[in-house]
Amino acid sequence: MARNRYDVDETLEDHFDINQLKRLGGYVKPYLGKMFFIMVLMLSSSALTMLIPKFVQLEMDRYIPQKDMNGIIRLVIYTFLIVLYSVICMWLKIDQMTKVGQDIIHEIREDLFAHLQELPFSYYDERPHGKIQVRVVNYVNNLSDLLSNGILNTITDLCNLIFILIFMFCTSPKLTWICLCGLPVLIIYVVVLKRKQRASWQLQSNKQSNLNAYIAESINGIRVTQAFVREKENIKIFNSLSMSYRKAWLKAVYYNFMMSPMVDLISVITTSFVYVVGVSCILGGGRSGVTVGVLVMFTAYISRFWQPINTIAGFYNSVLTAISYLERIFETIDEPVEVTDAPDAVEMPEIRGTVDFDHVTFSYEDGIPILKDVSFHVDQGQTIAIVGPTGAGKTTIVNLLSRFYNTDSGCVRIDGQDISKVTLHSLRTQMGVMMQDSFIFSGTIMDNIRYGNKTATDEEVIRAAKTVRAHDFIMQMEDGYQTQVNERGSRLSVGQRQLISFARALLNDPAILILDEATSSIDTETEIALQKGLDELLKGRTSFIIAHRLSTIQGADRIMYVDNGNIMEAGSHEELLARKGLYYDLYMSQYQG
Ligand SMILES: Nc1ncnc2c1ncn2[C@@H]1O[C@H](COP(=O)(O)OP(=O)(O)OP(=O)(O)O)[C@@H](O)[C@H]1O
C-alpha cells in the first residue's frame, strides 16, 4: 500500500460485501437470546397498544351513544394498564439494549486493538497514527446506535407493521389498499437515494480520519510548531481539514434527512386520500361499513403504519452509515500480519549468540533496496559496533535481527537457526533492544524499566538502573522509582530517557543486546562510568552497538562501517585506522575537526 498522509483520503482495499455484514452478525450472535426476550416484550407491548384505537372506536360507536359510563371507565383503565406495560417494556429495552450494544462494541474494539498489537512496523510506517486511532475509537463508537437500538427496533417494527396491516385489513380493506399505494413510491425513492448516501458517508469517514490524523500529528509536534512559530499555518491547515469534514458531514446528514420528510409526505398524502374516501363512504350511507369510529380508528392505524416505516428507513440509513465504518474496521482486522510465526515455527532454543547475515537484501518500499546482499558472521560474545553515515542502514540491520521486518531475500541466523523459522516470542524475549526512540510510557519509572521483564523484582530493576548509572538521578526525583512520568517522558531529559530505556533493555538479561544510539545524549562523565559497568555486563554476551560518537565503540571486537546498503569495511578500531579508509576518515573528522 502506498504511504498515506493526513490530507489524503485513504482508499479502501476491500469494499464492503455481505460477508462482512455476516461477520458483524457473529458479534451479535451471543446476544440473540437476550434480544429475542426484549423483542417478545416489545411485540407484546405493541400488540396491546394496537387495541387502543379499537377502544376509541368502541367508545365512539357504542359506549358514548349508549351513555355507558362504566364501559368508558373500563376502557380507560385498560388503556392505562396497556400504556404502563409499554413504558416498562420500553425502559427494559433501553436498559438492556444499551448494555448489549456497548458489549458488542467493546468486543469489536478489543479484536481491533489486539490485532493492532500484532501488526508489523511496516503497517505503522505506512499511515498517520491518528488514522489508526480514529478506527479504534470513533468508527467503533459510531456503530453504537445501530447495535443498541437499530437492529432490535427494526425487527420489532417489522413485526409491528405486520400486526398493523392485519388490523387495518380487518378494519377496512379498501382504505388499506389506498394507504399501501404510497409504498412503491417510497421504495423507488430509497433506491435512488442509497448510492448517494453511501458515497457521502464514506467521504465523511475519510474526512474525519484526515482531521484526526492531523490533530494527532500536531499534538506530537507541538514543540517544533511553537519553536518555529508555525501556529498560524497549523491553524490554517486544521481549519481547511475541519471545513472539509464539516462539508462532508453536512452532505451526509442532508442525504439522511431526505428520507424522513419523504416518508412524512407520502404518509400525509395517503392519509388525506383515506380521509376523502372514508368521509365519502360515511356520507354515502355507511354501506361499506365505514363509520365515524372506524375512520378515526383507521387513521390512528395509518399513523402507526408510517411510524415503523420511518424507523425502518432510519435503520437503513444507520446501516449505510455503519457500513462505511465497518469496512474500515474490518479492513484493519483483516490486515495481514506479515511478520508472524511460520506455521511450522519452533521455539528458539536458549540463545548462545552467534549471528549470521547470509546474503540479506531488504527494502522498506518495493524497488528501493536499503540493504543489498549483506553478509557477515559474528561469534558468540562479540561486541559489534555499527557505524556509518546517517541513513546508511545501521538501524535497518539490527531491526532485521529482531525480525521487526522480513528480509526480501537471504536469511538471518542466530546460532545457525534461521530466525524466520522460530516463534517471535521465543526470539524477542531473548533479545534486549534499546531503540533510538527511547519511548517512555505513562506510569512510574519502576514500571517503565520493568517493561523489559514484567517478572523482575524491585531489586533487579534497581540493579539494572545502577548498571546504566540511572539510579542517582532517579533517587533525586520526588518519589524515586515511584515517580510518575508522562507518556513520552516529557518531564525527563533526553539523556534520562535514554538511561531508563537502557535499563529496560538490560533487565531481561538478554543473550543478544542491541543498543541503537544508546548514549548519544548522555554526558561524557556518565558515559565513561556507564561504559565500565557495561564492559562487565557485556562479557559473554553478543552485542550490537550503533553509535555516531566513535569514542563509545573503540573497544568493540569488530567495527562494521555501513554505507550504500552494504558493509564497506570491517575490523577492529586499530585495523580500520591502519587501513586509512572510510572509518579512518570518519574518525579523523571527529577528532581533528
Ligand atoms: N520505515 C521506513 N520506511 C521507509 N524507509 C525507511 C524506513 N526507515 C528507514 N528508511 C530508510 O532506510 C534507510 C536506512 O535507514 P536506517 O534508519 O537504517 O539508517 P541509519 O543508518 O540507522 O541512520 P541514522 O544514523 O540516521 O540512524 C534510510 O535511507 C531511510 O530513509
UniProtKB/TrEMBL annotation:
Membrane topology reported for the UniProt record: Multi-pass membrane protein
PROSITE patterns tied to this protein: ABC_TM1F, ABC_TRANSPORTER_1, ABC_TRANSPORTER_2
Cited CDD domains: ABC_6TM_YknV_like
Any Pfam family the entry gives: ABC_membrane
Main location: membrane
Transmembrane parts of this sequence: 31-52, 72-92, 151-169, 175-193, 253-276, 282-302
Keywords: ATP-binding, Membrane, Nucleotide-binding, Transmembrane, Transmembrane helix
Statement: the UniProt record of this protein carries the keyword Transmembrane helix: yes
Location in the cell: Cell membrane
Molecular function terms, GO-annotated: ATP binding
Every ABC transmembrane type-1 domain range: 36-321
Residues of the ABC transporter domain: 355-589
The keyword Metal-binding appears for this protein: no
PANTHER family tied to this protein: ATP-BINDING CASSETTE SUB-FAMILY B, LMO0107 PROTEIN
Full protein name: ABC transporter ATP-binding protein
UniProt organism field: Jutongia huaianensis
